[in-house]
Amino acid sequence: MVNAPFSSLSERAQFVCGKVRKVRWAIGVDRTTAPDTFATGTWDQPVNDVSLWSTTASRSAAFDSSASPPPAGDTFVQLSRFEIGADCEDLVFATSKTLLVATSSGDVRVLDVTPDQIVQQHAWEQLHSLGSLPCAASCLSVHGTDVVTGGEDGKIIRLDFNRVDVKTKIGNIGLSSVRSLSHCGKDQVISGHLTGQLQVWDLRVKGDREGGDPCQTLAASTALDAVTSLGVHPAQPNLVAFGTQLGSVGFCDIRNAHRPLPDLLPIASGPIWEIAFHPLYPDNCFTCADDGTLLHWDAAALKQSSFRSQDASRMNVWLLGAALSDHVKLTNLLPDQKLPVNSVDLAGGSVLVGSDSELVHLVENVLLR
Amino acid sequence: MNSNSIALAGNHESMVVSLSKISQLKPQKTGAHVGSFELVPLTQTRFSNPSVRRLIIESHGIFVNLQAQTKASVQEQLGADELVSFSRQYRSVLRSACLSLQETAQGPSEDIALLCDIYRGGELVWSLVELLFIQPQGGSVAVDLVDWAQLNFTQADEYTCEILKAAESGFRPDQQPQYWNAAWLFVLSGRCEDARRLLLSHSRKDDAAFRSIDELLKKFPLDALNRDDVSAFSDWQEEVGSRLRNQHFASYPQLETIAKILAGNDAAWSDLRDVIDSWHEAFVGLALYFHPKLRVVELGEVAEEALRLFPVSNGSLSSLDQTLLALLEMDVLEALRSLSSCSADWWLVSHLTDLLIKAGAQLGPTGDEATQVDLREFLLLEYGSSLMAHDSLWQIGADYLSWCPRNGRAYLEAFFDKIPVDREHKALKLMSACAKYQLDAVATSVARQMTVKLLSAGRINIALGWCLQAKDPALVSFVVERALLEYGQSGLLGSLHLLEHLGDNAFISPALIFLQKYHEFHSLLKAGELLKAGQLLTDLIVSKVAPRKFWKVLFADALLLLDPSDGQVIIDKEATYQLIELLQSVTTEVTALRSNAFVDSDADRNEFSEQMTAFRLALFRNLGKAVCLS
Question: Which compartments is it annotated to reside in (chain A) (predicted)?
């Protein structure tokens, strides 16, 4: 049962003209409050762009007199913009000033981001391709200077942030299209595929020219149900949450993959485009789906032992399967949303959301326990 | 010679026209390119304007809520209050679109100015529709018109702003050229309090005439009309009339004009001849002061009267005027027709019609329900279609089409088929939308397009993932056979992790079941479970499910199992007999009938024959071993 949001929530939304594929908070100094700026990447427009926005800048400070002022009543101010042409597929802040974009033409671009302008530092072009045709670099993950990208061509490629020429292929030719990717720790990467599988890769293993086998393959869902999103628990990188094409969410512990995975929880009627644990309150998880739902999963209540059996008492709450689905508190933070919600990012008590209604929403004062 | 040549090329989004001048036809056609231009439907560029885009998206939200709420309500009928609320939401987004257009326009633009005019006209029409057809009836029509005027006729307010600005710079208000115009327009719109305030800024406000008019304006009994207390209103008008006759305002002709209007005195119009621009401005005053008791059905006549007093300058009414007149005459169908001609696109007419029908407005002859439904559907289909033709508004367009019960589905299928599927994320989005609207055939088509694209690029492993999504057995078989041929020899089939994961999905195609089993065979081999592997391989060969060109691979696999280094018997007696029998029929086919079913070319046939001979030998040797051991 999904609850309506608390009345203490405050929501601000702004029309940004362009379907928002990804929203990302900038890297803030203080992790307990939301930063002042965030980035967005659009998709499905004739020319797509990556923009930097401010949640607090006053209009007069942000604009010089020669530029036309933004319309009255704007809650966010667009500080700078960079055209990427092709769709934005994924967006990651590698440092507070560096933004990585994966595009649907198979490129990964490294952008220097400041309030005045966004400039491309360098780009790895056509990392992913289908023969002579380009194809999308569907997902990105960054850990330190390590950048890993997965694409529609089934390739997973490892790059070094500081060295443009270094490209290592992970995985061999047998992979199906990579839909989602995440580092789970320094040396491990987990990938989610079109064919409903999760594969875990050990970056320390030197593969042959063709890449090598994954150290584990897990059946997350069925072969007709792609794994469309992945989220890694901030405190326990072996605990991974995933969302699927048919609207289910699952959790797994990759250290105990031989055990059957807990049942999938069907919570939406469309693909789950993003799933993320809150970085400071990991008993809270957020999912956004194609049917317009943005769900806040509050599993804090499950910490009480009354819901758990003896042997389950030491397990992480997210792995409790049926007990989780019975007792987790689900709240839809955007009950009026009609069009697909594509992306969510969390900082402090603020939830940043991007959707196909060409809006960026900021939901604040979310109750986190 | 010199002739012009035109070339055209187009797609669903635009058309390119290219002009060249041909200077010579023989011996070779030569000429020069003069220029090219692209023709894009106006809606394409217009829908790319942020303010218009925002209007489209926000009104979509309102529309969907309206449909859902109607469906969920008792007898699918919403109450007047709820309908008014939706109407106001629509008007609000229309107004903010207008304001936003003006604010963000970069420099003067004809298109933007035109659009603004159209939106303002739209607001004018919509608020009148709300007044006449959506608001709960009851109360005075004249009073409603006053509200309508206040919302839409802003000329007097603009004049007042100018006057105030001038006053700040030290100029006397009553010396401003627009002072009296503003006062008269206020009075005509029934805004007596505003007129009063303006008059109080006159330097002669303490004169008797001014004080007299001030008193009259203060006593203006608008509430009385609302209470249907017509006698109070006529008493007041009597009072005005008597003061007029007693020359209270003789010293100030402008005040006299005001009094004439208030008293419902026809002489007022000749005074206002040069002040009033259009019949709209006169209309409300005419209704309020000259026909205060008017009922809704009489509005048309009053409008005609206003038009007679202030005819249109060039003789023919604009579409907007025609719309307003038709509405006042309660001819909704005619109004919608005129509205379509003065609109930029289908947005206004379609949303308005939908709302009107829900409010129970009579669109056609009574009892003709079909016309209403058809009209609504026609307009929504047109609007939805115009959105579908745009790059990124297909999701919104699809939603509108889905609310058209008769033809929506067919339109949805036709349009979705045209959306290019060039990247995976788009394909997944499309498939999700297909699931939402239950367009299974289109979903299959999308998955098929992805599969074919991947096959042409030679990426069969990925094509395998997509062909399953298509749920098309023939396609799956095709891809599997390609996969077998491509990967069978190279041993890469072993790394297709997908095959471990198929479960019941393999049953869509026998070829896929075979592939799954063959992968299992390789896994068993890798795990060292030779006996099980041997059994499985025998089953696979004997079942004859494999594509024929693949049999040589199976035979090669079997050969390895028949000749293990440790002398173990992996394939047992019964299995060996089955294989021998099968081999016999294959040999007959290849040597006697010269069939090429198992090989790629004639040349390979000999090689295959040799392989079969070796296989037969190995089988007999195996039989011997098996018999000895048993």
Answer: Nucleus
